[in-house]
Amino acid sequence: MSVARRITLGVLVATVLALVLADLSAPRPDPWMTLAAIGQGILHPDLSDPLSLFNGAVLTLAFALCGVGLGAVAGLVLAPLYHLAPVRFLCVAIRALHELFWALLLMNITGLSPLTGVLAIGLPYAGIFAKVFSEYLDEAGRGGEQALPPGLGAVTRLVWVRYPAVLPQMAAYTLYRLECGMRSSAVLGFIGLPTLGFQLETWFRQAEYDRAVVVLAVFFLLILPIRHWARWRLMPVYLLASVWALLRVEVPPMGSGALARFLSDIVPAPLRTGADWGGWLDKVFVQQAWPGVVDTLVLGQLALVLAGWLAALAFPMIVPRVAGRLGAMLGHGVLVLLRSTPEYMLAFVLLQILGPSMLPAVLALGLHNGAIIAHLMGRQAATLPLRPDAPRGLTLWGWELFPRLMGNFRALCLYRWEIILRESAIMGVLGLGTLGFYVQTNVAELRLDRVMALLLVTVALTLAVDALSRRLRRRLQPDSRLRIEGMRGQG
C-alpha cells in the first residue's frame, strides 16, 4: 500500500473515531428564530453610536499594528540565530500558544491594558517571523557576500547584503501578517480588550443583532481592503497613531506586586503549600488535561476533514475555465470573506444560532481553513498548463485539475492540521470541552499553576502534531513551489 493510501486510511479511521466521541448535537430549540432576528438586524442596521464603532475600529487596528510591528522586529533579530537550538526551541514554544492564551496569561501581570494585547500578538508572531525570515535568508544564500571586501564582520554582511536581498519577501509577508494580526486583535475583544470583538460579543449576547451586524460590517471594511490602505510609506504614521491611541486607553488598576504574585502562583501548589502531589497531578492531568486533549483532537480532526472536503469542492469556484469569469469573481469573493473571518468570531456567531456543541466550532474551523486551502489550490490550478482540447467546467475539475493537484492538496491539509489544532484548543473559551475551557476555568479561579501546566500540555500537543505533519509531508514529497509559497504565506 502506498504512503498516500496509508495516510488516507489513517485519516478515515481517525475521523470515524472522532465522530463517535464528538458531541455534534444542536440543542437550541429554534435556530431559525435566531436567524430571522439576525436577518432583521441586517435589513435594519443600527448606526446610532458611530463614535463607539470608530473607537473600536481604531483600537483594533492599533493592537494589530503594534503587535505585528513588535513581532516583526523581534523576528528580524532572531532570524539569523534561528539555527541555534535554544533560539529555535524558544521560537517554537512561543508560537505554539494561541494569542488568546497569551492574553489570558498576561492579564495576571499587566491586567486589561494595551500592553497585554500588544504582547499577546507580538510574542507568538515573533516566533513565526523568526522562522519565516530565517527561511528567506537560507533560500537567498550568500552569493552576494562575495562582492564585499574580506574581513567584514558577520553583522555587517547580514545588514548590507543578506537582509536587502530578501527585503521584498519580508515586506510582503509582514503585510500578510498584519491581516492575521487584525483577526487576532478582534478576537482579543472577547476577553475584555476594547476591540471590535468586545462590541460584537456584547451585542450578540444581548440579542441586539442590528448593532452586532454593524460591528461585523466595520470589521470587514477594515480587513478586506487591507492591501489598498496598508502602504509601507504610511506605516510610520500608522504606528505613531496606534501608539497614541493605545496610550489613551484607560487601564483598570492592578495593584502593586502583580509580577511577584504571578511568579509565585505559577509554582505548583504542592511546592508552595505542601499539598498532596497525587491529588494535584490527578486534578490537572487526569481530570482536566486528558479530556481537554481528547476533545481538542476530536474537534481538530473533524474540522480538518471538513476543511479538506470544502477545499476540494470549492477551489474550482475561482478557476475561470471551470466556473466562468463571472463565477470565478464571485467565488473569489466568497473565499476571501470566509478566510478573512476569524475562526473564533465565526464560531461565536454560529454558537448563538446552533446552541452549545462542537458543531459551531467544527463549521467555523472547516469553513475558514477550507477557504484558505481552496484559495491556494485555485491559484495553482489557474497556472497549470493544459492541452488545447482540455474540457471545461466540472469535467476539467474532476478529470484534470484535482488529480494533478492531489499531492499538494494532501500536503496543504497536513500543514493546516497543526494550525487547526491550535485554534481548536482555544475554542474551549467559548464553553466547549477543549483545553481552552480548562485554561479559562483555572484563570478565573486564580490557579495559575494549573494554567501553566495545561499550557505546557497545549504546547506539547501542538508540537507533536506539527512534527507528525512535517514527517508525513516529507514522505508525500509535494511540489516545492506551492509548499514554500502557499504554506508559508497562509500560516
UniProtKB/TrEMBL annotation:
<feature type="transmembrane region" description="Helical">
    <location>
        <begin position="100"/>
        <end position="126"/>
    </location>
</feature>
<keyword id="KW-0472">Membrane</keyword>
<feature type="transmembrane region" description="Helical">
    <location>
        <begin position="344"/>
        <end position="367"/>
    </location>
</feature>
<feature type="transmembrane region" description="Helical">
    <location>
        <begin position="212"/>
        <end position="230"/>
    </location>
</feature>
<feature type="transmembrane region" description="Helical">
    <location>
        <begin position="53"/>
        <end position="79"/>
    </location>
</feature>
<keyword id="KW-0812">Transmembrane</keyword>
<feature type="transmembrane region" description="Helical">
    <location>
        <begin position="297"/>
        <end position="315"/>
    </location>
</feature>
<dbReference type="GO" id="GO:0005886">
    <property type="term" value="C:plasma membrane"/>
</dbReference>
<keyword id="KW-1003">Cell membrane</keyword>
<keyword id="KW-0813">Transport</keyword>
<feature type="transmembrane region" description="Helical">
    <location>
        <begin position="419"/>
        <end position="439"/>
    </location>
</feature>
<feature type="transmembrane region" description="Helical">
    <location>
        <begin position="451"/>
        <end position="468"/>
    </location>
</feature>
<keyword id="KW-1133">Transmembrane helix</keyword>
<dbReference type="InterPro" id="IPR035906">
    <property type="entry name" value="MetI-like_sf"/>
</dbReference>
<protein>
    <submittedName>
        <fullName>Phosphate-import permease protein PhnE</fullName>
    </submittedName>
</protein>
